[in-house]
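Lab notebook, bench 4. The sequencing result for the construct came back, and we need a structural model before the next group meeting so we can plan mutations. Quick request posted to the team channel:

Model the 3D structure of this chain.
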Amino acid sequence: MDPETPIPKKHTNIWQSVKMAKIFADLGYAVDVISWTNNTFIPQKNYSFFVDVRHNLQRLTPFLNEDCIKIMHLDTASIIFHNAAEAKRLLDVQSRRGITLRPRRFEMPNLGLEHADYATSVGNDFTLDTFSYSKKKIFKVPTPCAILKDFPNKNWARCRNRFLWFSSSGLVHKGLDLALEAFARLPDCHLTICAPVERDDDFVRAYYKELYETPNINTVGWVDVEGDRFSEITADCVAMLHLSCSEGGGTAVKTCMHAGLIPVVSYESGVDVDAFGCLLKDCSIDNVIKTVSHITTLSENELKKRARNAWETARRLYTRENFAREYSRVIQQIIKEHNPRLCT
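Done. Here's the predicted structure in token form:
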């Protein structure tokens, strides 16, 4: 990568990968980088570390020197859990609507963690619990959100009934079907949808009425988090919904916290929302309706306080600077624990 080329902000993983490599370089190591999709590379020399995110660790372990420290970076929940959770959501849609939608987020399970000495994860205890079977030591590191925004000056009375859906594709996995069916029964509440819905064409056909013919639901599509449109939308909303069945860190939630939105999230979204958000362990449509309705009854002062706490949490934890500090600290701790002779 040309050092003069700006790093794209379309996903935190891009910047994160570059920074992880730079941290090793700053610690005195020469760093070789391959794409996570590279399935032909074979090591031709000894390595002090090998860091992977998917399938290369299990493929290349037989070729690595015995004293190489192998680290799996976990940016999802356990893929077995992840696939099973999406399958359950698809069965639920089939039962409620009488339709069969395609899985969009299924992945081939990998054995990277089984071959690793250690792991890092941007998730919370939910995410780590899906890997508890491995008995491996997993270090938490914060999500490096790409944006920093000032706390918004909102008309809290106006926006109290207005909510944002913000996610990537895989809409049943993310729970958009649940949000649509809930807001179709909440005519006094408004939902703006910012997601690449066109990628899930069968979902669009199944939920066309809710997406495009329901007065209190506005489907915008994908938006750039650095653009004016995202700022305009978040300034007009009080909270964001994220009802995912399995996440590795919930970057969409944390990005919206940076914009001063109250997070209304499933437990499986993998984000700690403490007292300022709403954590749903039951993502039934009735419970989504109940939770959204409750938020609309809160005082303006309470709404502002919760939004402010969410924003302050994001600014304290979910920044590039904090990720760099914590990842460097974790790597140095691994060096100290695994092989003190490697300490620089």
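Residues 156-317 form a domain with the Rossmann fold fold (CATH 3.40.50.2000).
Will bring this to the meeting.
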